[in-house]
Write a structure and sequence with these properties.
The complex is a heterodimer of chains A (421) and B (374).
Chain A lengths: L2 H18 L5 H15 L6 H8 L3 H20 L1 H13 L3 H19 L2 H18 L4 H17 L5 H10 L7 H23 L5 H11 L10 H15 L9 H15 L5 H32 L1 H10 L3 H9 L7 H15 L5 H14 L8 H10 L5 H23 L1 H8 L1
Helix pairs in contact in A: 1-2, 2-14, 3-14, 4-7, 4-13, 4-14, 5-6, 5-7, 6-7, 6-8, 6-10, 7-8, 7-19, 8-10, 8-18, 8-19, 8-20, 9-17, 9-18, 10-18, 10-20, 12-13, 14-17, 15-17, 17-18, 18-20, 18-21
Chain B lengths: L5 H23 L14 E4 L15 E6 L6 E5 L7 H13 L1 E4 L1 E5 L19 E6 L2 E6 L16 E3 L6 E3 L18 H15 L4 E8 L8 E4 L4 H13 L5 E4 L8 H8 L3 E8 L12 H6 L3 H9 L14 H22 L6 E3 L4 H7 L8
Parallel strand pairs in B: 3-5, 3-10, 10-13, 11-12
Antiparallel strand pairs in B: 1-2, 2-5, 4-14, 6-7, 8-9, 11-13
Helix pairs in contact in B: 2-8, 4-8, 8-9
Chain lengths: 421, 374
């Protein structure tokens, strides 16, 4: 057995033991795994490497923290609630379209932040009462929100798992828009239709109208939505009209959006809101620091190269099986870094953009899976369900459908790329 | 009270200790190693002499001039555009420390992107330094980053729109000097450095310019001379000369629609004849094994042998010998000499005559350290 394989097994074992046995957070477990890998690899305690790797995702961490504060402020000002009521008022006569729009609405914060939990904690929390009040079962509501959060994490413009894989294989984050839409929108639409026809067969338009009329709250006019419009337009403007729009960077755009949000409505306690936002994002930020350290040690000890070279020699059938195992890592970011990076090499010869997009979908499904089953746990809090594994059980069919779509796209990645890119 | 916060205190102390240790390590990266030019050096200046917009920044860098005093052409040699490419920097240092010019002038910039020498590439696990044994001990050199230090230029945009082509690249590339040409005086630091280099080429009437690089063995553009389409004859002449010396270089035309690169923009925006050379460096590859100084210097890696055997990729790697530093530095020096010879053939009115540089065979026999001063 090669030393690289021994190091890798020890790192994975440390990660698993830390999570399962010692109930440590995933981020801390990744850091411990990195330290163990360095020790076994004969590097001692390489402080410079650990710190350097820990800073690998600094930009993503800044984006997540500022985006989370922004979304929380939007929640407090009532902008998100206003949008969700608006959606319901627009589409309540067409329930199928309504569920599809709600699914995309829940995905929205994840698309902007690359963070699945944001979807559940912000837009998910807003649409849950609506879905329950229009007659959908509680468990199904939790499951739909959790699934939408997965697709939001995958969908463009910001997909952190892609950045994690890209960081591991030296691939720029460019040209992923269409591939990510391809692997996120069709499964999201099918999931929406599945929940519509399985869990909302007896939709009553009159009852929904009554609910709408009873929940019309205070109105602040369109100015409430100014921060959301600003953030979206500025991000697009920076890319499309860079000659005229000064480059601020995504974190600063979110900070300006937050300040605008505070100006649109008085009484929002920014310190409290920021504290709550950062507290909910902290586990994910810790994972990103841990993933950076983990990747640095994989490169330093030669494990990364070993995995890549081994993967190059694998028979084709086993390669697809490995991709199908990605969701069972229990964490999107962990899965992306540990299996996603070598799998990109495995599928060299097919379109790297499409392959990476599929791998990101597979990895993102991991956020639903135990041991942490993070999204199911968040979702269960929203719908007040004590056993979050019941939500996971309700998600099983959409998960299977999404994985099937993913594997099919992977098999025909090059052909699909020739058609769409 | 203390017991309640014990874990917080421990985590804080461990993090602070790690931060201090790392900060010391990163702080040292800001102190460049001393270089010892040959006695034939006539002038040492700074890049900011050609564009003061970079004065006082980490983008400013030393410019060394060898003037023979005899009328002829002017050559520019740039190393360290990407500070993680060891042989690119080292080849320019060897030339700097040995060169004698008997006709025309040669300008050398060993650290083209000086800022990139002050940082590292996260998640790559590269060593900070590598040592070359010499007759007088070991000379230590920095192994830096591919791009400008984010402390000097941050944040990156989501999408980098190259100036003036408007070509879109990933945000990270906004700090890549070899995507920034021709640069602009009011741009970001990398664009300003690129602009300063263009100013130097113009003001010094540079006739022929070299940009030395290294790349991963699995990358298609490796062991090549990339030339601007206007100067194909010179490239072909040099490739032939190198072939006769037993060295194979693939001639590659600079893509017309890939902007920001030296071999494209120096040719389009100045009167210089530009060439870019790449050697194969396994320590930069994604398939590499343990990342350490030995890999940087010996360039031997079993992973590349195995990867080559799978046949899945085209890999420029010599299974028996690897790609040692003296081989890579030797190739660059030979490429520099042969391209100048070929230039002299086509432009006899602008002769540049250089001496005192080691041949490839001597470099392989004696090692790089033999040709370093001090």
């Amino acid at each position: 057995m090669s030393i690289e394989l021994i190091i890798f097994i020890c790192m994975l074992a440390t990660f698993a033991l830390s999570i399962f046995l010692f109930k440590m957070p995933a981020g801390v477990s990744l850091m411990l795994a990195a330290v163990v890998g360095a020790l076994i690899g004969g590097e001692g305690l390489p402080v410079r490497h650990l710190v350097e790797g820990g800073f690998g995702f600094l930009e993503a961490i800044l984006i997540i923290s500022t985006a989370m504060i922004f979304m929380r402020v939007m929640q407090e000002t009532g902008a998100l609630a206003g949008v969700s009521r608006g959606i319901l008022r627009l589409f309540y006569r067409q329930p199928t379209l309504l569920i599809i729009v709600i699914t995309v609405f829940v995905m929205f914060p994840g698309m902007l932040t690359g963070l699945s939990s944001t979807c559940i904690l912000t837009t998910g929390a807003l649409v849950a009462p609506i879905l329950i009040n229009i007659g959908m079962q509680r468990l199904a509501v939790g499951a739909l929100i959790a699934m939408a959060a997965v697709f939001g994490e995958v969908a463009p413009p910001i997909s952190i798992p892609v950045m994690i894989i890209g960081g591991g294989v030296d691939m720029p984050y460019i040209g992923f828009g269409i591939p990510l839409l391809l692997v996120s929108l069709p499964p999201a639409l099918i999931t929406a239709l599945y929940f519509r026809y399985r869990y909302l067969p007896d939709y009553n338009v009159d009852r929904v109208k009554e609910y709408l009329d009873s929940t019309d709250g205070e109105k602040y006019g369109v100015i409430l939505y100014l921060p959301i419009v600003f953030v979206i337009l500025y991000m697009i403007g920076e890319i499309r009209f860079h000659e005229y729009v000064p480059h601020l960077g995504v974190p600063l755009i979110f900070i300006i959006g937050t300040i605008l949000g505070l100006l649109t409505r008085k009484g929002v306690k920014i310190i409290d809101v920021s504290r709550k936002a950062l507290r909910s994002a902290m586990p994910v930020m810790a994972i990103l620091v841990g993933v950076g350290m983990f990747l640095q040690i994989l490169a330093l000890t030669g494990v990364r190269g070993y995995l890549a070279v081994t993967a190059l020699g694998l028979p084709e059938g086993i390669r697809y099986l490995a991709a199908g195992l990605m969701p069972f890592m229990g964490s999107a970011y962990g899965s992306a870094s540990i299996i996603g990076v070598p799998l990109v090499y495995v599928f060299i010869g097919k379109s790297t953009l499409v392959v990476t997009a599929v791998l990101v979908l597979m990895a993102a499904l991991g956020d639903l899976m135990p041991p942490p089953a993070l999204l199911c746990a968040y979702s269960s809090q929203i719908i007040e369900e004590k056993n979050h594994f019941r939500i996971l059980k309700t998600c099983l069919i959409p998960i299977a459908i999404s994985m099937t779509i993913g594997i099919l796209i992977l098999v025909f990645a090059q052909e699909i790329s020739n058609l769409i890119l | 009270m203390i017991r309640n916060h014990l874990s917080t205190i421990i985590i804080f102390l461990v993090t602070a200790a790690a931060g201090v240790i790392a900060a010391i390590s990163f702080g040292k990266m800001h102190h460049p190693e001393e270089l010892y030019p040959s006695t034939f050096l006539t002038k040492k200046g700074m890049l900011s002499d050609y564009f003061d917009g970079i004065k006082g920044t980490n983008g400013d860098t030393e410019v060394y001039l060898f003037d023979s005093g005899v009328e002829g052409g002017t050559a520019l040699l740039g190393g360290g555009t990407h500070a993680n490419e060891a042989a690119s920097f080292l080849a320019s240092v060897v030339i700097l420390e040995n060169l004698k010019v008997t006709q025309g002038r040669v300008i050398i910039i060993p650290r083209m992107n000086n800022s990139a020498f002050t940082c590292s590439d996260p998640m790559e696990g590269f060593p900070e330094y590598f040592g070359i044994p010499t007759d007088n001990g070991t000379r230590t050199f920095r192994l830096g980053s591919r791009v400008t230090n984010p402390l000097d230029q941050w944040p990156d945009p989501l999408v980098f729109a190259q100036y003036p082509s408007n070509q879109q690249l990933s945000g990270f590339e906004t700090r890549n000097l070899n995507r920034a040409y021709p640069g602009r005086p009011d741009g970001n630091l990398t664009e300003k450095v690129a602009y300063a280099i263009i100013q130097l080429i113009d003001k010094e009437n540079v006739n022929i310019a070299f940009d030395l690089h290294e790349s991963s063995p699995e990358v298609p553009i490796v062991n090549v001379i990339v030339y601007h389409e206007k100067y194909e004859d010179i490239a072909m002449g040099a490739v032939l000369g190198l072939e006769m010396a037993g060295l194979q270089f693939s001639p590659e035309t600079s893509p017309k629609n890939f902007h920001g690169l030296s071999h494209r923009e120096w040719g389009d925006f100045t009167n210089a004849v530009p060439f870019l050379m790449e050697t194969s460096n396994p320590s930069m590859g994604r398939l590499r094994g343990k990342t350490d100084v030995d890999l940087v210097l010996r360039g031997y890696c079993d992973n590349y042998k195995k990867a080559k055997e799978t046949g899945a990729l085209r890999i420029a790697y010599r299974e028996d010998t690897g790609e040692p530093i003296e081989h890579r530095v030797g190739r660059h020096i030979m490429g520099f000499k042969e391209l100048i010879n070929s230039y002299n053939y086509y432009y006899p009115e602008n002769q540049i005559v250089i001496e005192n540089l080691p041949d490839y065979d001597l470099m392989m026999e004696n090692g790089v350290g033999k040709y370093l001063n001090n």
